[in-house]
Amino acid sequence: MKWFTRIIQGLLVIDFLLSGIMKLTGNNTVVQEFTKVYNFSLGFMYTIGILEVLGALGLFIGYWKPKLAVAASGGLGLIMIGAIFTLFNAGQGLMALMPLVVLILSIIVFIRNQAILKQKSITKEG
Fold it and tell me: Residue 39 region, left (φ>0) first, then alpha (ψ -120 to 50), else beta?
């Protein structure tokens, strides 16, 4: 289970890092989606991009610091919930499957790292 979670965590690092960089570089397709399709501002797009990159870094550092992985996976999960609602609101319900899968993977990483922290605290007490 440990390696399964670590692989998922690594895939999430790559996914959010690439997604965040695409937003931060002002990729034309992403800009069009955010401004025309979803009616969000460019500032919001850049904010989400920054949060995704920071979350990816948090997940990466979380290999050694499980508390950071819990925080990062929780925050990124919230972003995915927002993405799901945004896609449904834009009439793109089928497109919501991808952020739903990423949300589920984030929840797996969250739960596993919570368990690691709990085990560490039990070991310290005993």
Answer: left
* Band (28; pLDDT cuts 50, 70, 90): very high
User: What average pLDDT does range 85-111 have in this prediction?
Assistant: 97
- Secondary structure of the chain as H, E, C letters: CHHHHHHHHHHHHHHHHHHHHHHHCCCHHHHHHHHHHCCCCHHHHHHHHHHHHHHHHHHHHCCCCHHHHHHHHHHHHHHHHHHHHHHHHCCCHHHHHHHHHHHHHHHHHHHHHHHHHHHHHHHHHC
**From the CA atom positions of the chain, what is the Rg in Å?**
16
Q: What is the pTM of this model?
A: 0.93
